[in-house]
Structure formats: structure tokens, C-alpha cells
Amino acid sequence: MEVEVCAFSIESCLNAQLAGATRVELCAGIYEGGTTPSCGMVALARACLAIELYVMIRPRGGDFCYDAHEFEVMKHDIETAKRLDADGVVLGILLPNGQIDVARSRELIELAKPLKTTFHRAFDRAAAPFGALESIIETGAVRLLTSGQQPTALAGKELLAQLIQQANGRIEIMAGSGVTAQNAVELAQTGVQALHLTGKTSRAGQMIFEGAPVGMASILSVNENEIIFSDIAKIKAVWQALD
Predict the structure, then answer these.
(1) What span, in angstroms and rounded, lies between the C-alpha atoms of 109 and 88?
(2) Among 34, 113, 166, 198, which one is least packed by beta carbons within 10 Å?
(3) Are 81 and 42 in contact (CB under 8 A)?
(4) Could you give the CA distance from residue 28 to residue 7 in angstroms, rounded to a whole number?
(5) What CATH number does domain 2-201+226-242 carry, 3.40.190.80, 3.20.20.380, 3.40.50.1860, 3.40.47.10?
(6) Rounded Cα gap, residues 235 and 6, in angstroms
(7) Model-level pTM greater than 0.85?
């Protein structure tokens, strides 16, 4: 079993490594579900990590149907990830009808080589999951991250087991969303080859003076005075549960 940690900071990258994670999925945009991190973030993460580093290639939050300009941004971000010595990238593109955009996903995956590619949870917003799995295999991705098209992987465990059976070793299936030490064993029993988690916790930021309650996150209702990070103990607990 592999354990991948979704990290939104260098602190979280280091905590993932200390906790024994197999690899890090590096992201920005924590309130958008993960977007492409900056060049500086990727470079420093690479300098700090001995474990595998995969870089999220997602130009914005929202849906996974991208226009021509966004697609070009994704290409440039992949080239940057390669130049900064990442081990892999994480991406996914859908067509307006909910099908996998095989042609453009495959183009990006070919561009990323020799880096490996995880097709992310865009799959969980796709139509016809069994057909979508075949399409993702066709793109050349080595791994699929999915919650079984449910809000959490535990809720989607039945589909996860069916996907494993259908894949038959042609692509790795990684369960993500709501993974904890309390459900790690049950998820492992579906046959998934990897678990994906943030292991998140939070603490107060360093600001003493807070001023007027003016939010920076636009329409999102979040506490912008807290720091969210990956917790070493929560990640280690997943390993311990699997032993």
C-alpha cells in the first residue's frame, strides 16, 4: 500500500516525509480543492523532499472543462514541473458532456513524459464511470485518484472495488477524500493500491492585530486567520492502522 499526502505548504511536505508518506501531491488553492502551485513552491519542495513529488496541473478551481488558453497554461505548467525535477504531475480534463477528454489529456500526458501522471478526481465528476475508466487508461495515465464518485472514499467503496476489478492491473487505483486512520483498513479491503489524504489540522496564524473583518477569499466563507497543515500524527496513524 502507498500513502500519498496532498500538501499545500512546505511545512506539510516536510511533515508528510517525516510521517513516512510514499509521495507528496503539491497543490496551491486549498479552498478550491487544489490548483497549480507556484514555481517557487515547487522548487523549494523539490529541494526539501527525498520522496516522490507530484505537481498539480490545474489552472483554476471550478469544473474540469478548459478553454484553449487554460490548456496552454497547463502545457507551460507541465514544462515547469519537468524543469524543476518533479517526479510526476496530476491532471484531468472533461468534455462538456461529462466524458473524459481523451485527446487533450493524452497530449498533456505525452508532454509530461518521462514524468508519470495521475488522473485526478475530475473522474468523480465524469459520466459513466466504467467507460470513463477505460478512457483514462487510454490516455496513458499510470494512476487514478477517485472517491468512487461519492463525497468520501468510504461512501464510494463499492464503486472503488468494481473499478479495481475492471482495471485488472492496467492502472493503479488510489482512494482519496476523507481518508483517515479510522477507515484506512476498510478502504484497503477494496483492493486499492494507494490511499490519498491531507491529514489536515489547523492552528491560529501569527497575526495579533486582526483589524476589520474584511475577507480575502471572495465568496468563500472561511477563517482566514488560521493555518491549515498536514499533521504528522494523523499520517502516521494511517500507516499504523494498515500494519
Answers:
(1) 10
(2) 113
(3) yes
(4) 8
(5) 3.20.20.380
(6) 11
(7) yes
Domain ranges of the chain: 2-201+226-242
pLDDT tens column, 16-51: 999 999 999 999 999 899 999 999 999 999 999 999
> Which set of grid coordinates corresponds to residue 166?
475492471
Q: Which residue has the cell 507541465?
A: 78
Phi–psi pair at 237, nearest 5 degrees:
-65, -30
pLDDT at 194 over 70: yes
218 pLDDT tier (thresholds 50, 70, 90): low
Do 143 and 172 contact (CB within 8 A), yes or no?
Answer: yes
What per-residue string of b and e applies to 179-217 under the rule 16 or more CB within 10 Å gives b?
bbbebbeebbebebbbbbbbbbeeeeeeeeeeeeeeeee
Sign of the torsion angle spanned by Cα atoms 129, 162, 148, 49:
negative
